[in-house]
Design a protein that fits this description.
The complex is a heterodimer of chains A (about 170) and B (about 425). By secondary structure, chain A is of the alpha+beta class. Helix content of chain A is about 40%, strand content about 10%. Chain A has seven helices and five strands. Classes of the chains: A alpha+beta (about 170), B alpha/beta (about 425).
Chain lengths: ~170, ~425
């Protein structure tokens, strides 16, 4: 089966994909989760990821690319190891989400969708992440941080830099 | 971690297990968990749907469609398999209630899905969470695995001869996927563009089979309705608006948070008593009452009951229950601009009035906010928004147009104050104003 074939994914992820495609009435239903999980491992959706996912699902590569380009969390080039996503939508904006974004830009020396020179951090201004009542809020990769101040933001970045940050995958 | 709040006026039904450790299946069982599904199995589909109709529960995603009625539309006989699809794509700005349900009471979502499945004769349910909610997806996945390990899911559930499976699914970042037909497209592995209706999902849904699609809060309320009875649940609310609802109060209040209040609870009391009033003793300017797509209310319009009908009469909508509170320091034009920026970003591009309309509204409001507009631009903004209404496959076009019309209608003076090179008289929330225009 697919796991015995040549794969660009780790054995764990390849096995997970083998199972995932069996859960739905149609294999193609696994496409969006597969792309996201592949990105978690590879760092971004490379040509090789597209090719293997297409093959696993019996799709054409351009079908996969068409779906890939629709979803805002999927990216085709690497982000930093820790992708800092600052919400500036209405509830966060009212509680200084833009101040947090500016603080991150200055502190990291990068702008929206840029990566630091050491590859450790990237920064993104994002739309509502569903933490409105605990604004201003951010996500670092998949982990939420809320009720932020510039001081708390510094602490979070320091923790990640020192390898002490949360890492939900 | 999201902070839990509490207020004496709350009636905790859907949120009653929050903070009590109910992610642990044993704890959930000890708190009356999985009793409702057994009652539902014993009494059968007709009883379930009758109780749901009696409960007056209306869809908690925002549209407010009666849940029991929706379930009753699913044909009893179907050649194709039927499905239950739980919408946990929670993406409407101002809304974070489902976040807490997945975090604190994941088994209630599973149990509600099972009951919906038994009611319509489905054997498979999907629980779809937005991609950003990965830590919540892990909680849901564990809950599903624990339910399988107990034998609550899978073959012959509770010795009934009924098989029922649950599959969790992640999105990957798209507001539009919260619309039910786009949600089905996404679950089928496609771009999340809406389908034209009819046919409605109850007849032709996922994989062409009849499908019930409900918001996560709606589904999590179902077991409680089974246990307390539809009539008792209905009595907690107002006429045709049964039960309670999770209201998320955010923005410029002293105690922001998600509060479970009876349907029909007074909006002014919710802001001033429950959420502690306006932060720092400032004056209230405006309220966006049900997520960013609902038309704004002025400070003197908020003495109204929070249910679908009363809010409709007041010229706005109850929406998703996300109440966003704006104090006197907010520039309404900047707020309108941030709102339309969101819809422009999220428009899937399928329908031209939405794709082009949101883009031009963003440009026009952006230019106005920066001081580059003239008098007739205000009417142009309104005219443009009015011509998007009802002209798209899905409600995203409306969701962008309705608040824009509301801002211009209710706060026209603030738009005028920006005209003819004057620019914004308020302190900007963001520094890089010019870059946006």
């Amino acid at each position: 089966m697919a796991t015995e074939k040549k794969t660009i994914f780790s054995p764990e992820l390849a096995a997970r994909f083998d199972k995932l495609v069996t859960l739905y009435p149609m294999r193609r239903s696994a496409l969006v989760p597969m792309l996201l999980y592949a990105q978690d491992e590879v760092g971004y959706i490379s040509k090789e990821v597209v090719a293997e996912v297409a093959e696993r699902l019996g799709l054409r590569e351009n079908d996969v690319e068409s779906v890939l380009s629709y979803y805002s969390m999927l990216r085709t080039k690497p982000a930093g190891k820790y992708n800092v996503q600052v919400c500036t939508n209405i509830s966060c904006m009212l509680r200084d989400g833009y101040g947090i974004l500016e603080h991150c830009k200055k502190r990291l020396g990068i702008d929206h969708k840029e990566v630091t020179a050491d590859g450790l951090f990237s920064l993104e201004e994002v739309e509502c992440i569903g933490a409105c009542c605990w604004a201003p809020a951010i996500q670092v990769n998949y982990d939420f941080y809320d009720e932020l101040t510039p001081e708390k933001m510094d602490q979070i970045l320091d923790d990640y830099k020192a390898g002490r940050g949360k890492e939900t995958v | 971690m999201p902070r839990l709040v509490s207020h004496p006026d709350e009636v905790k039904i859907t949120s009653r297990r929050f903070g009590l450790g109910a992610t642990d299946i044993e704890k959930y069982i000890a708190l009356d968990g999985y009793k409702a599904v057994q009652a539902a199995i014993a009494k059968g589909p007709e009883w379930i749907i009758a109780e749901m109709k009696a409960s007056g529960l209306r869809g908690r995603g925002g549209a407010g469609f009666p849940t029991g009625l929706k379930w009753s539309f699913v044909p009893k006989q179907s050649e194709k398999p039927k499905y239950v699809l739980v919408n946990g794509d929670e993406s409407e700005p101002g809304t974070c209630k489902d976040h807490l349900i997945f975090l604190y009471d994941p088994h209630a979502v599973i149990e509600g899905t099972m009951i919906a499945g038994i009611a319509i004769g489905a054997k498979l349910g999907f629980i779809y969470l937005r991609g950003e909610y990965r830590y919540l997806l892990k909680i849901m996945e564990k809950a599903v695995a624990d339910a399988y390990a107990k034998g609550f899911l899978g073959k012959n559930i509770f010795g009934s001869g009924i098989d029922f499976d649950v599959v969790t699914q992640t999105g990957a970042g798209a507001y539009e996927v919260g619309e039910e037909s786009a949600l089905m497209e996404s679950l089928e592995g496609k771009r999340g563009v809406p389908r034209i209706k009819p046919p409605f999902p109850a007849v032709v849904g996922l994989y062409g089979g009849p499908t019930v699609i409900n918001n996560a809060e709606t589904i999590a309320s179902v077991p409680h309705i089974m246990l307390m009875g539809g009539e008792a649940y209905a009595k907690l609310g107002t006429e045709r608006n049964g039960g309670t609802r999770l209201f998320g109060i955010s923005g410029h209040v002293e105690r922001p948070g998600v509060y479970e209040l009876p349907m029909g609870y007074n909006l002014k009391k919710a802001i001033y008593d429950v959420a502690g009033g306006i932060r720092g003793g400032k004056k209230l300017k405006a309220v966006v009452p049900g997520g960013s797509s609902t038309p704004v209310m002025t400070a003197d319009e908020i003495d109204v009951g929070l249910d679908f009908d009363q809010m409709g009469k007041a010229g706005t909508m109850l929406g998703s229950g996300g109440i966003v509170v704006l104090d006197e320091t907010v520039c309404i034009v900047e707020f309108a601009l941030r709102t339309i920026q969101f819809y422009q970003h999220e428009s899937c591009g399928w329908c031209i009035p939405c794709r082009e309309g949101t883009d031009w509204l963003k440009k026009s409001i952006g230019r106005l906010h920066a001081g580059g507009a003239v008098d007739k631009d205000i009417d142009n903004i309104r005219y443009l928004a009015e011509n998007m209404l009802g002209r798209t496959f899905c409600p995203l076009g409306d969701a962008a147009a309705m608040p824009t019309i509301g801002f211009v209608q209710k706060f026209r003076k603030e738009f005028e104050d920006h005209l003819n090179g004057k620019g914004c008289p308020y302190k900007h929330a963001r520094e890089e104003e010019a870059a946006l225009v």
